[in-house]
């Protein structure tokens, strides 16, 4: 019964995120809005952590299964991905280095 409640709270936040995304004048992922809404509700104690903890842990435990369809879909584009593999790796490494530099700089600014 607790899993039903947990999933219901998470699902309602997702639906509210979809409703908000539908009225926004620009494109924004509804799932991100739903997560931000759930975070705001948890932070303000309108939703207690016990109401979503078991369902959230179950979803996180089985998250790897959710990526199998994506990986299978990428296999059908292997030829396209292999042509641009250098650019993909360059973008990933450059992004990683920029993020590490930004976080390090921000940490140094906040620590001093």
UniProtKB/TrEMBL annotation:
Keywords noted in UniProt: Cell membrane, Membrane, Transmembrane, Transmembrane helix
Cell compartment(s), UniProt: Cell membrane
Bilayer disposition of the protein: Multi-pass membrane protein
InterPro entries linked: LrgA/CidA (IPR005538)
Ranges that cross the membrane: 31-47, 59-78, 84-107
Superkingdom classification of source: Bacteria
Protein name per UniProt: CidA/LrgA family protein
Organism: Oceanimonas smirnovii
């Amino acid at each position: 019964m607790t899993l039903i409640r947990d999933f219901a709270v998470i699902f309602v936040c997702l639906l509210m995120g979809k409703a908000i995304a539908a009225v926004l004048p620009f494109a924004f992922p509804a799932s991100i809005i739903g997560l931000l809404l759930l975070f705001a509700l948890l932070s303000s104690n309108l939703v207690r952590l016990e109401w979503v903890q078991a369902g959230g842990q179950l979803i996180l435990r089985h998250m790897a299964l959710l990526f199998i369809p994506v990986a299978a879909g990428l296999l059908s584009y292997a030829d396209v991905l292999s042509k641009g593999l250098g650019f993909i790796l360059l973008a990933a490494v450059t992004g990683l280095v920029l993020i590490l530099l930004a976080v390090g700089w921000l940490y140094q600014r906040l620590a001093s």
